[in-house]
């Protein structure tokens, strides 16, 4: 058992080295240090204001947290950054390109927002192969690597419909990272994962950060924020405020957004 | 991209439980409905061409209603904006929308073929593989036997045959023309559904499509709901008359009826109208949908 785990760790570290090399190659194309710039963004749905006056500056190679109550606008903000929603006012710039104007979506983006739609009667690997066909940039080896990195067995023939919530979540993360993106946007990536799964994904995210990947993650749990994030943005009352990690504004002993719930 | 679409839609169309269920249902329904007819055909020594009965079934209102009713059910599986973000971010919005239209197109093709296979399997003992009009059709259009055709054949299903239709060409030609017209109508209804579902919310397009498909039936059933008092109401009569007159121009289902076109000798004109109208709506709707996707609410 110990030998098996040792081999797995060794395998993962080898894969991560390759990953690092790929990220470095990608990084050479990046001239600016700023990954995401959001200035005075406003988003309305008809007359309802969801977000207003949002300023964010996300540097490359860092992990950023996004916290807020349910319905506060975290997902809307993430969708605006990804390009799924157009801001009502102002703009979002990713790697110097205006989303919705210069490009539809950020050029090197891995994302998991909401529950990813997989074909239920196909295996996890087949689903990833199917998605990989769209860009046709990676092959089976990269897909298997991504699955192993999140803790999924690539050879598993099980249909996705038979997957547990945690396994689907891992598959969602695998599809987000498999094409080695420079920007990773994850909405509640730890939902449904067991303690070991959470720990594995945390380590994976930290290693990806070391490789230069910029990560924006929304999480309900303070532990994730404290362990992973350099800076934390709180979405509250339609506005986004930046909280330093050490500032303890995000509750140390309570859920990040639970503080508002309790009040 | 093409490989992705091929794999995606092979799975979505041919292997999805929705399609398997529809195929089995159609097959079982057709075998049960044509059971007596097969026996009667055997007694009378009649045979039928493999491609003759589906068009005849689709020229009757009830047949058209069933056909498009199930088609809307199949297309209602789309679109999946929610849960498709991982695909959309890779494909791009425009291509994703195009992919939904491709799904509608393939669905329309496969669905027509499912019905064709269903009819062939239901009448397999009496099927002949010939491109000449069969003895059954000749019996149906012969003035001497036409009057009692339905009774002689113990038919449980409405089928429409006409000398005009036979004059259009061979059974294969009629089947192909019917296929093209139904493709046109199906793709139009499907695209409208996808567009409305994206513009508003999932379900709006489905309701609109069922209204398009069932508007005539709904108007026929309405008086029964009001104890037949409605037929004496002038407003209802006027509106129904208007609808019947306008149906010729506005309903894609009406325009896919080759028999009506053959009877009225208006087929080439209507084909053009249907084709032009559908293409116009296609570009209009797709352009609008791409634009609307930007501001779609959660």
Task: Give structural notes.
- The complex is a heterodimer of chains A (263) and B (298).
- Chain A is of the alpha/beta class.
- Chain A has a single domain (2-108, 181-262), classed as Rossmann fold, CATH 3.40.50.
- Chain A contains 8 helices and 10 strands.
- Chain A has helices at residues 2-27, 74-82, 124-135, 140-150, 165-177, 195-210, 222-228, 258-262; strands spanning 34-45, 48-59, 63-68, 89-94, 97-98, 109-112, 183-187, 214-218, 231-236, 239-244.
- Chain A has a 6-stranded mixed sheet with strand order 6-7-8-3-9-10, with helices on both faces. In chain A, strands 2-1-4-5 form a 4-stranded antiparallel sheet, with helices on one face.
- In chain A, strand 1 and strand 2 form a beta hairpin.
- In chain A, helix 3 (124-135) crosses helix 4, helix 3 packs parallel to helix 5 (165-177) and helix 4 packs across helix 5 (165-177).
- Chain B is mainly alpha-helical and 298 residues long.
- Chain B has one domain (2-293).
- In chain B, 75% of the residues lie in helices and 1% in strands.
- Chain B contains 16 helices and 2 strands.
- Chain B has helices spanning 2-14, 17-44, 53-58, 61-75, 85-91, 93-122, 135-141, 143-146, 149-152, 163-166, 171-199, 204-225, 234-250, 252-255, 258-264, 267-293; strands spanning 48-49, 127-128.
- Chain B has a two-stranded parallel sheet.
- The longest helix of chain B is centred in the middle third of the chain and has 30 residues, at 93-122.
- Chain B is globular, with a radius of gyration of 21 Å.
- The two termini of chain B are 27 Å apart.
- Classes of the chains: A alpha/beta (263), B mainly alpha (298).
- The A-B interface holds A 45, 75-76, 79, 82-86, 100, 104-105, 109, 111-117, 119, 121-122, 130-131, 133-136, 172, 175-176 and B 1, 3-4, 7-8, 11-12, 15-17, 80, 82-93, 294-298.
């Amino acid at each position: 058992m110990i030998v098996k785990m040792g081999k797995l760790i060794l395998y993962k570290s080898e894969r991560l080295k390759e990953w690092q090399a790929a990220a470095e190659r990608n990084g050479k194309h990046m001239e600016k240090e700023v990954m995401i710039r959001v200035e005075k963004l406003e988003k309305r749905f008809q007359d309802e204001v969801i977000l207003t006056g949002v300023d964010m500056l996300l540097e490359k190679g860092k992990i950023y947290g996004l916290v807020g109550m349910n319905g506060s606008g975290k997902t809307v903000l993430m969708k605006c950054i990804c390009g799924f929603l157009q801001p009502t006012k102002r703009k979002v710039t990713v790697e110097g390109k205006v989303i919705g104007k210069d490009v539809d979506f950020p050029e090197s983006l891995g994302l998991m927002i909401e529950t990813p739609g997989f074909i239920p009667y196909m295996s996890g690997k087949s689903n990833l192969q199917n998605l990989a066909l769209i860009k046709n940039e990676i092959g089976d080896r990269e897909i298997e690597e991504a699955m192993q990195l999140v803790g999924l067995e690539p050879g598993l023939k099980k249909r996705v419909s038979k997957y547990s919530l945690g396994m689907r979540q891992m598959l969602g993360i695998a599809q987000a990272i498999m094409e080695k993106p420079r920007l990773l946007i994850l909405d509640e990536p730890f939902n449904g994962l067991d303690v070991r799964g959470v720990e594995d994904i945390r380590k994976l995210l930290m290693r990806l950060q070391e490789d230069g990947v910029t990560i924006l993650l929304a999480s309900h749990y303070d532990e994730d924020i404290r362990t992973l994030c350099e800076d934390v943005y709180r979405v509250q009352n339609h506005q986004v405020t930046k909280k330093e990690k050490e500032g303890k504004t995000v509750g140390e002993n309570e859920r990040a957004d639970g503080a508002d719930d309790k009040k | 991209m093409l490989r992705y679409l091929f794999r995606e839609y092979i799975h979505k169309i041919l292997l999805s439980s929705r399609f398997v269920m529809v195929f089995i249902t159609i097959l079982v329904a057709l075998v049960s409905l044509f059971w007596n007819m097969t026996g009667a055909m055997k007694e009378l020594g009649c045979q039928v061409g493999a491609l003759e009965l589906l068009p005849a079934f689709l020229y009757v209102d009830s047949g058209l209603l069933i056909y498009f009713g199930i088609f809307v059910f199949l297309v209602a599986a789309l679109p999946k904006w929610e849960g498709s973000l991982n695909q959309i971010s890779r494909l791009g919005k425009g291509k994703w929308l195009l992919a939904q239209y491709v799904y509608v197109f393939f669905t329309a093709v496969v669905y027509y073929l499912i019905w064709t296979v269903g009819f062939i399997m239901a009448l397999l003992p009496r099927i002949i593989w010939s491109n000449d009009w069969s003895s059954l059709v000749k019996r149906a259009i012969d003035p001497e036997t036409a009057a009692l055709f339905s009774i002689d054949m113990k038919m449980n299903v409405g089928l429409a045959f006409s000398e005009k239709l036979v004059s259009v060409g061979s059974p294969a030609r009629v089947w192909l023309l019917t296929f093209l017209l139904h493709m046109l109508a199906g793709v139009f209804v499907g695209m409208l559904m996808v567009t409305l579902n994206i513009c508003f919310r999932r379900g709006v397009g489905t309701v609109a499509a069922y209204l398009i498909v069932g508007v005539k039936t709904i108007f026929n059933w309405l008086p029964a709901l009001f104890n037949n008092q409605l037929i004496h109401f002038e407003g209802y009569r006027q509106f129904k008359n208007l609808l019947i007159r306008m149906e010729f121009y506005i309903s894609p289902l009406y325009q896919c009826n080759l028999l009506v076109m053959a009877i009225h000798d208006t087929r080439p004109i209507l084909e053009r109208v249907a084709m032009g109208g559908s293409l116009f709506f296609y570009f209009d709707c797709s352009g609008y949908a791409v634009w609307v996707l930007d501001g779609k609410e959660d």
